[in-house]
Design a protein that fits this description.
This protein has about 220 residues and is mainly alpha-helical. It has one domain: Rhopdopsin 7-helix transmembrane proteins (Up-down Bundle), CATH 1.20.1070. It is about 75% helix and about 0% strand. The longest helix is centred in the N-terminal third of the chain and has 33 residues. The radius of gyration is 18 Å and the shape is globular. The protein starts with a helix and ends in a 5-residue tail after the last helix.
Length: about 220
């Protein structure tokens, strides 16, 4: 039976391998959709979204991979903290772009007025992420600020999910299950924000969350 250290190594290898596959899927999809689709088309916009997603997630996943596989026990805490900040910013942009595509794709003129509140939620989320109280690179992490900065983010996600759910009722197509992928991503993300500080194992929910993001990007291939 594997020892505790052996199990940890196996989990590190598994998580690192998963992260490499995830990042590869996102960047390859982003490059393909961007260069093989007409500029300005919905598929092209998904390509831009994929590149934004890769830019942010690679900033925190690559240092995490290095810290998991490094035999020298080098300290990557600063890089990880800054990477999480970068990912928080890019994910906000990701959902604003996703909202815009959904409204155009399903021609949801009735909810177009929500562009103002959606933009306000995104701006508030970015402002909260940039606040120094987050202590992204500090040894002692804030317990309150992860919750505060994610309140507008969750509301933003709910607005995007509702738009795609409404669109799926209007037209059944390759994006019909987009709302479900968004729901899964937040269903996995919220417990991590609330309880991973007390129970690090909850952080494993970030794996299905990443799968949901990959699914969001892969669904866009139905537009070509």
């Amino acid at each position: 039976m594997p020892s505790g250290s052996s199990k940890k190594k196996l989990m590190n290898y598994f998580e690192s391998g998963f992260s490499v596959i995830y990042l590869s899927v996102v960047i390859i999809s982003g490059i393909y959709l961007t260069f093989k689709s007409a500029a300005g088309s919905e598929a092209w916009q998904f390509g831009i979204m994929a590149l934004v997603l890769f830019a942010g997630d690679s900033c925190h996943l690559i240092p995490r991979i290095l810290s998991q596989l490094s035999p020298s026990k080098k300290d990557y805490s600063t890089a990880l903290g800054l990477g999480k900040l970068a990912a928080s910013i890019t994910m906000t942009i990701f959902y604003v772009l996703l909202w815009n595509i959904g409204v155009m794709h399903y021609q949801l003129q009735s909810v177009a007025w929500l562009w103002g509140p959606v933009s306000l939620l995104a701006a508030l989320r970015l402002a909260l992420c940039l606040a120094p109280q987050n202590r992204w690179t500090g040894a002692e992490k804030s317990l309150k600020w992860p919750i505060l900065r994610n309140i507008p983010f969750v509301l933003l996600g709910l607005a995007v999910m509702a738009a795609y759910a409404a669109g799926a009722l209007i037209k059944h197509d390759g994006l019909s299950f987009m709302w479900l992928a968004i729901f899964i991503s937040f269903a996995c993300y919220i417990p991590v924000v609330l309880w991973s500080g007390k129970n690090p194992k909850i952080g494993m929910l970030m794996l299905p969350k990443s799968c949901a993001y990959a699914a969001i990007i892969l669904m866009s291939f139905s537009l070509n």
